[in-house]
């Protein structure tokens, strides 16, 4: 694949292919972000698609080529800020708890030579494959009975548990890459198992923990099945809130609330990829190499 | 400082036997080397002493304490690992200080003790570097310093030189020998390199398949190997071993015939002799065969000859000059021969 | 690590998984055997001075609520829920079987039943999207490997977007472009010269769009993994293949692909699991009239406006779990074989 006998034709073809893919991957986001600052007749421009670019109707209705009406409607009139706050609480708590439980468990699995550690990983793999909605259908009746349905705490704990199989697998493979000698040296030097874990292993594990944290953030942030079913109207997170906008898009303008909240919810993800691209790519490959 | 007693210790994983019923007494201040091929159980033995591996059966005594159930931290031993086990997020200074810090040694002693240990291994110039910025030899010396800073009951060293290049290995070996001479701490040293074993050890334990084959000072292991395994494992090249029959002091095999052996046995045996005990002669001798390969070593010349199935190594002076395919004649003095019975165990010659 | 410290470290994680994954599976099993209480009815006789007496049937709201509170699970129904029309529909199938003249007729009637419709789409989605996503990812990886270095960073950045995007958001973004009022939907109408064309009105078109969405979010994952794998292709083997006279394609075929096979297995496993649970695009594309998935019909039962159908959702969930286990069976068997061959 290196520079021996580069074939110009093949390179041109490859570049074209990559360009097509980049447009496919990126353009929908660009289009939606642009359109979120227009009014509905421009965003869905039946008459002439260039209206979406020039914003004819937007100018007529609001006076400017761009409008923040969709954002105002979603964030202020429809309390999207509350959903954003819920999302922030749920994701931060879920990531923190997932990492605490996951580092402890992943460390144990990476360091135990016994067969049961292997079987725990296999069971975790099966759990990982369970569609979340099937588990949710098991939660509702007990949660109603225990009267814990509809609180953020319940959703957080459920998300932590549902993400454990994945977190365990990922951290387990990161811990495997830390040499055993290190814990053993620490224990001979006078540490208990837990001291060795805390003072010697954790400090060298930060890259792995950050990467795993990114992925548990994505799992919590992107969740729809759990939060849509386990939260009330008034403490919904962003994704179920967007879904509930969809129920009322028949009213003129409402669909723009959905569009602008979709764009708003994409921003954190966009920033995440921008700053942590290396870690995300590293995490995917680490999982692949070890898994 | 303490003596170490292993009383019939075994380590098994399911059906697999790692160490089988090993009993060993290691007196205070001894430098004991566990030597054997990989997978022979030498590392497992050491890790059981350190408390990193559970003991399936038997007892380990450090001084007058049975330590089977003690955590590694409570056994007061220190250990040097094959890949060093340095803490990558700490400087060299912090690495050496770590055992003092974690064991709550009074703070005011730390600096003095770290500096003393660093001086002994000549590391004073590197104290604020991180392990990643050190060469292999320097890392190994940090590991040594970290082990000696605490003045423990015993040192355990698990193949400490095997990740170093040949030249460094020689100088670090000398450093370890010197450290032991200065500190006089009981040391258990695991290696698969017989040169390390011969040069460092007060006594060597040769292990194979989880069983101690021979426990003796290095020269005795060399001169009087207890069985064919030890004979073939010790010495470079390994001892030549030839199967045949003995009767009335005469060994016969299709390849060679040696008369005048003092061993009072008869029947099938294995005859062993070392390459350097053989005399290459121009005529006669008990062995003649075509040369298979010639290796000029500088101070001497090694011939390999092929007699039937066996490859036999012969050592000659540096002047010896033969081509591949020429016939070489050799004389094997009966006094240099070792005889091993059908079970592989050494048969002693009377009067020795 | 000794058993005791292992337990200490794994315990929090294990408790979380047992309480919120293992127990719910049990709870689903129990719920699937029950069905919601019907309303309690009682007859009321009302007599008017002129018209005589009439008997009326009324809902006894108080008694109904009391019963529901006392037995929240509902009444025991055995396997009834599994066999009813909304699930395995054994009765209906038997009827179709005797009534249908041909296989085609039989299948088309079976595929109208809610459970089989959802199962059919879920399996089709999994089987189409998984290999296509992997193949597309592989080709992107090969292509990106050839383009100038400065472009690689931005390409990877843009490629990651569809993967990390919230599935519901991703499907909405595409839906708004593809529906009859969106830019791509309009383009389709123009190309087909049919102003009434809309993805929502055509079954095959809905399926195709959902598949495209699936490939769009699945390809980046395979791309990143394969791209990383390409960086570790053994150069020695590649060069000796060149010396041995292998053409460019033969090198890909005999060196690169074998090197990537373990990665492909991993990607396939992850993608199978993820694609089988497809739910959000059906919500986002508002496609339930044309396509439903197993996850979606569970979701729908639980979301039902007039009383959630726990029993029905649970029965579908149990069967979904069964399918997941079947899906994982090859992996489990292989792991088990590898494991029992390996000593200690």
Automatic annotation (TrEMBL), chain A:
The keyword Protease does not apply. Pfam families: BPD_transp_1. It is a multi-pass membrane protein. Coiled coil: none annotated. One of its GO terms (cellular component) is plasma membrane. The chain crosses the membrane at residues 12-34, 80-104, 116-140, 146-171, 200-221, 255-276. Residues 84-274 form the ABC transmembrane type-1 domain. GO terms for biological process: transmembrane transport. It is found in: Cell membrane. The keyword Flavoprotein does not apply. Keywords: Cell membrane, Membrane, Transmembrane, Transmembrane helix, Transport. Belongs to the binding-protein-dependent transport system permease family. This is Carbohydrate ABC transporter membrane protein 2 (CUT1 family). It comes from Pseudoroseicyclus aestuarii.
From TrEMBL, chain B:
Residues 4-234 form the ABC transporter domain. The keyword Nucleotide-binding applies. InterPro entries: AAA+_ATPase, ABC_transporter-like_ATP-bd, ABC_transporter-like_CS, ABC_transpr_MalK-like, ABC_transpr_MalK/UgpC-like, Mo/tungstate-bd_C_term_dom, NA-bd_OB-fold, P-loop_NTPase. Pfam families: ABC_tran (PF00005), TOBE_2 (PF08402). One of its GO terms (molecular function) is ATP binding. One of its GO terms (biological process) is carbohydrate transport. Keywords: ATP-binding, Nucleotide-binding, Transport. GO terms for cellular component: ATP-binding cassette (ABC) transporter complex, substrate-binding subunit-containing. PANTHER family: MALTODEXTRIN IMPORT ATP-BINDING PROTEIN MSMX, OSMOPROTECTIVE COMPOUNDS UPTAKE ATP-BINDING PROTEIN GGTA. Belongs to the ABC transporter superfamily. This is Carbohydrate ABC transporter ATP-binding protein (CUT1 family). It comes from Pseudoroseicyclus aestuarii.
TrEMBL record, chain C:
Residues 119-331 form the ABC transmembrane type-1 domain. PROSITE patterns: ABC_TM1. This is Carbohydrate ABC transporter membrane protein 1 (CUT1 family). Pfam families: BPD_transp_1. GO terms for cellular component: plasma membrane. It comes from Pseudoroseicyclus aestuarii. It is a multi-pass membrane protein. The chain crosses the membrane at residues 7-30, 123-144, 156-178, 205-230, 251-273, 309-333. Signal peptide: none annotated. Belongs to the binding-protein-dependent transport system permease family. It is found in: Cell membrane. Keywords: Cell membrane, Membrane, Transmembrane, Transmembrane helix, Transport. One of its GO terms (biological process) is transmembrane transport. It comes from the Bacteria. Its main location: membrane. PANTHER family: BLR7065 PROTEIN, SPERMIDINE_PUTRESCINE TRANSPORT SYSTEM PERMEASE PROTEIN. Gene3D superfamilies: MetI-like (1.10.3720.10).
């Amino acid at each position: 694949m290196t520079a021996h006998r580069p074939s110009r034709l093949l390179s041109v073809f490859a570049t074209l292919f990559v360009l097509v893919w980049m447009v496919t991957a990126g353009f929908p986001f660009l289009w939606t972000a642009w359109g979120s600052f227009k009014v509905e007749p421009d965003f869905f421009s039946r008459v002439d698609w260039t209206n979406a670019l020039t914003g004819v109707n937007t100018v007529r209705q609001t006076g400017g080529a761009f409008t923040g009406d969709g954002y105002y409607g979603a964030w202020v009139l429809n309390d999207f800020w509350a959903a954003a706050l819920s999302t922030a609480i749920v994701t931060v708590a879920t990531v923190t708890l997932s990492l605490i439980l996951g580092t402890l468990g992943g460390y144990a699995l990476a360091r135990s030579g016994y067969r049961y550690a292997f079987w725990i990983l296999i069971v975790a793999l099966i759990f990982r494959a369970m569609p979340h909605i099937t588990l949710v259908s098991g939660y509702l009746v007990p949660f109603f009975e225990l009267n814990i349905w509809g609180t953020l705490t319940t959703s957080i704990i459920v998300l932590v548990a549902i993400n454990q199989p994945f977190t365990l697998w990922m951290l387990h493979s990161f811990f495997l890459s830390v040499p055993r000698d290190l814990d053993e040296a620490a224990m001979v030097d006078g540490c208990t198992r837990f001291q060795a874990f805390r003072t010697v292993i954790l400090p060298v594990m930060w890259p792995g923990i950050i990467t795993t944290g990114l992925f548990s953030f994505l799992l919590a942030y992107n969740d729809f099945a759990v939060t849509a079913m386990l939260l009330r109207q008034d403490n919904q997170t962003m994704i179920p809130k967007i879904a509930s906008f969809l129920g009322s898009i028949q009213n003129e303008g409402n669909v723009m609330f959905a569009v602008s909240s979709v764009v708003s919810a994409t921003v954190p993800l966009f920033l995440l990829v921008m700053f942590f691209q290396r870690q995300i790519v590293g995490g995917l490959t680490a999982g692949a190499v070890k898994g | 400082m303490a003596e170490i007693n292993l009383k019939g210790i075994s380590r098994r994983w399911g059906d697999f036997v790692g160490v089988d019923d090993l009993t060993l007494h290691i007196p205070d201040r001894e430098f004991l080397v566990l030597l054997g091929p990989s997978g022979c159980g030498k590392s497992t033995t050491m890790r059981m002493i350190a408390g990193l591996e559970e003991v399936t059966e038997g007892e380990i005594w450090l001084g007058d304490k049975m330590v089977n159930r003690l955590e590694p931290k409570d056994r007061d031993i220190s250990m040097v690992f094959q890949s060093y086990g340095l803490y990558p997020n700490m400087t060299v200074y912090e690495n050496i200080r770590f055992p003092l810090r974690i064991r709550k040694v009074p703070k005011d002693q730390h600096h003095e003790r770290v500096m003393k240990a660093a001086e002994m291994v000549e590391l004073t110039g590197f104290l604020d570097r991180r392990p990643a910025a050190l060469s292999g030899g320097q890392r190994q010396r940090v590991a040594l310093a970290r082990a000696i800073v605490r003045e423990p009951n015993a040192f355990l060293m698990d193949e400490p030189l095997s990740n170093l290049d040949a030249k460094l290995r020689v100088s670090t070996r000398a450093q370890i020998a010197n450290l032991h001479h200065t500190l006089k701490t009981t040391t258990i040293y695991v290696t698969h390199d017989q040169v390390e074993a011969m040069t460092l050890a007060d006594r060597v334990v040769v292990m194979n398949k989880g069983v101690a084959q021979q426990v003796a000072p290095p020269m005795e292991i060399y001169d009087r190997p207890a069985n064919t395994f030890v004979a073939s494992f010790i010495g470079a090249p390994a001892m030549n071993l030839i199967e045949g029959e003995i009767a009335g002091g005469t060994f016969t095999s299709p390849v060679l015939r040696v008369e005048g052996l003092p061993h009072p046995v008869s029947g099938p045996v294995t005859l062993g002799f070392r390459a350097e005990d053989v005399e290459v002669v121009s005529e006669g001798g008990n062995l003649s065969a075509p040369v298979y390969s010639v290796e000029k070593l500088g101070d001497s010349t090694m011939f390999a000859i092929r007699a039937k199935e066996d490859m036999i190594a012969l050592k000659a002076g540096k002047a010896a000059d033969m081509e591949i395919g020429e016939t070489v004649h050799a004389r094997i003095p009966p006094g240099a021969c070792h005889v091993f019975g059908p079970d592989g165990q050494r048969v002693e010659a009377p009067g020795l | 690590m000794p058993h005791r410290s292992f337990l200490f470290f794994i315990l929090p994680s294990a408790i979380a998984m047992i309480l919120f994954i293992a127990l719910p599976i049990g709870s689903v099993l129990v719920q699937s055997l029950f069905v919601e209480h019907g309303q309690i009815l009682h007859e009321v006789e009302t007599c008017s001075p002129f018209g005589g007496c009439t008997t009326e049937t009324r809902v006894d709201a108080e008694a109904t609520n009391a019963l529901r509170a006392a037995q929240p699970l509902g009444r025991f129904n055995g396997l009834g829920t599994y066999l009813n029309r909304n699930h395995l529909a054994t009765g209906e199938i038997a009827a179709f079987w005797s009534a249908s003249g041909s296989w085609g007729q039989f299948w088309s009637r079976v595929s109208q039943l809610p459970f089989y419709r959802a199962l059919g789409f879920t399996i089709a989605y999994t089987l189409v999207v998984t290999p296509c996503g992997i193949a597309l990812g592989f080709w992107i990886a090969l292509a990106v490997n050839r383009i100038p270095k400065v472009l690689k960073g931005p390409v990877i950045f843009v490629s990651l977007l569809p993967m990390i995007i919230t599935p519901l958001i991703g499907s909405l973004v595409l839906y708004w472009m593809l529906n009859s009022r969106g830019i791509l939907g309009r383009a389709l109408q123009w190309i087909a010269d049919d102003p009434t064309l809309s993805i929502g009105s055509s079954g095959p078109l809905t399926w195709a769009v959902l598949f495209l969405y699936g490939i769009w979010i699945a390809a980046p994952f395979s791309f990143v993994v394969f791209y990383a794998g390409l960086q570790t292709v053994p150069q020695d083997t590649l060069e000796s293949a060149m010396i041995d006279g292998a053409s460019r394609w033969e090198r890909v075929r005999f060196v690169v692909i074998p090197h990537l096979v373990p990665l492909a297995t991993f990607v396939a496993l992850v993608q199978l699991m993820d694609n089988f649970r497809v739910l959000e695009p059906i919500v986002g594309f508002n496609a339930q009239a044309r396509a439903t998935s197993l996850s979606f019909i569970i979701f729908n039962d639980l979301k039902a406006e007039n009383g959630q159908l726990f029993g029905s959702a649970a029965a579908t969930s149990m069967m979904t779990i069964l399918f997941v286990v079947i899906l994982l069976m090859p992996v489990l068997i292989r792991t088990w074989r590898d494991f029992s061959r390996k000593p200690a």
